[in-house]
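Incident review: delayed structure delivery

Summary: a single-chain prediction request sat in the queue longer than the usual turnaround. Root cause was a stuck worker, restarted by the on-call engineer. No data loss occurred. The affected request and its eventual output are reproduced below so the record is complete for anyone auditing the incident later.

Affected input:
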Amino acid sequence: MPINSMARVMQTLKHYFRSFKIIGLTIGLLALLLLCPLPAKAASSAAIRAYDDVDIATKNFAGKSLIQAEFNDAKLEGANFSSADLRGAVFNGSNLKRANFHGADFSDGIAYITNFAEANFTDAVLTSAMLLQSNFKDADITGADFTFAVLDRAQLLALCQRASGTNPTTGVDTRESLECR
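Output delivered after worker restart:
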């Protein structure tokens, strides 16, 4: 299925979850799999890079194309993802404390039970990302675009307390993208 079709399905699901206050990755992923399973040919030919249960030595992914990369239980404290293309990437149970996502594109990405404490998300694009049960304590989100992103309510309220700026790529105000009141 083309990425644009997947993005539309994800966007529809996110609107549904937000409307009914249903927050749960298991339900969301199950619905996504039921609505748009990957064709066998696409699944077998996809070159998805997986970084599982590892302490990645380099931790420098600045400017890299990491489209649909998977980081499961990865120890990436202080990693540099500045200006990286992380569209559709997955961070599951990973430690990204003090990581640098300045100017990164994490559109349509998934972060589940991931630690983003003190991370730098200045000018990052997180449109339509599913960011459930993840920690954003003291993360810098100046100029970040969270349009249609799904966050736990507690994290959303905490992010709204310090949201400011306008994303230079999308032109969207951070507070508006989080739907802060």
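Verification: Strands lie at 50-52, 70-72, 90-92, 110-112, 130-132, 150-151.
Action items: add queue-age alerting; document worker restart procedure.
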